[in-house]
Write a structure and sequence with these properties.
This protein is mainly beta. The strands form three sheets. The chain has an eight-stranded mixed β-sheet, with no helix packed on it. Strand 3 and strand 4 form a beta hairpin. The relative contact order is 0.06.
């Protein structure tokens, strides 16, 4: 049924075609001082999808919110709270492709990025001590004196440091700033 529910102050619920969208879409219209300011929310009658203008703020938990963006794109972004066993995660996925998840694992409060087993076998993890872990989820079992940056793999593992032509690349060792920042070096001069 078409029409607008009036006398509700600055907000009007409406099913009207003259303010954008299909005639059967439900719209929450915003007014200031009696002047129409725009559609604050619109629910499409054909899909049930809701569109909001402006920011959305939630004071409570958001359990599963999906948003599709991009012209001609099937990209879907999911914000997932309480993903699995109490983890807080953001899921990024493209329809028909692989999902990536990033979030905080509630078992060890570590920030992790990965795919299906993102919490137990992440690609990257940063723990509560600020350690950077590539290919593992915990620094447990590694020397506490050398565990700030750990790279682990199940087969060959390596790292590249690429510099420009006729440039120098280095790994520096020190105990301060200035000249104390490079008391020892591993240096490569690319001629």
């Amino acid at each position: 049924r078409s029409g607008t529910l009036r006398n509700t102050g600055a907000w009007h619920w409406s099913v009207r075609g003259d303010v954008g969208g299909a005639n059967d879409d439900l719209k929450l219209l915003r007014f200031t001082g009696g002047s129409y300011q725009g559609v604050a929310m619109q629910v499409a009658s054909s899909t049930g999808n809701a569109t909001f203008e402006g920011n959305i703020t939630a004071n409570g938990a958001i359990n599963n919110v999906q948003s599709t963006t991009g012209t001609g794109s099937n990209a879907v972004k999911n914000i997932v709270y309480n993903y699995g066993g109490g983890d807080a995660a953001l899921q990024l996925s493209i329809v028909g492709s692989i999902d990536y998840l990033l979030g905080v694992d509630n078992t060890d409060d570590t920030f992790k990025i990965g795919q299906a087993s993102w919490d137990s076998s992440p690609y990257l993890a940063i723990d509560t001590s600020g350690r950077l872990l590539l290919g593992l989820s915990s620094a447990t079992g590694y020397s506490a004196d050398q565990d700030n940056f750990i790279i682990k793999g199940s087969a060959e593992v390596g790292m590249h440091i690429i510099g420009g032509t006729s440039s120098t690349t280095a790994i520096n060792f020190g105990d301060g700033t200035g000249t104390s920042a490079y008391l020892g070096q591993i240096t490569y001069h690319n001629a």
